[in-house]
Amino acid sequence: MIIYVRDWLNRGKYILFFLVLTSILYHMMLFVTEWIKPVEKYKEPIGGSVKVFQNHTKLTDQAPMGERLKLFYWLGE
């Protein structure tokens, strides 16, 4: 069995090329992810905003099933 060094160097070159391109693609995806991510996700809105939902209903685990089902349909959770 003859091992050709030139063949292994060519394979190593292509493997290195693949790894470099994979690394570049990974870092490009990280950049795009940081670019499109909102700066402050949970900050308070600016302007005349109105709170849409106020949780007046307090249900415990002992609440009747009908009340829990109505709350499920009302909130969608």
Regarding quaternary structure, what we see is single chain
In terms of per-residue confidence, which ranges show pLDDT below 50 for 5 or more consecutive residues?
none
Radius of gyration: 29 Å
What's the N-to-C terminus distance? Answer: 67 Å
Question: How would you describe this structure to a colleague?
Answer:
The structure is a single chain. The chain has 77 residues and is mainly α. 56% of the residues lie in helices and 0% in strands. The protein contains two helices and no strands. The longest helix has 32 residues. The protein is elongated.
List keywords for this structure.
77 residues; 2 helices; mainly alpha
Q: Short summary of the structure?
A:
With 77 residues, the protein is an all-alpha fold. The chain has helices at residues 5-36, 65-75.
Secondary structure: elements and pairs:
Layout: H1 5-36, H2 65-75
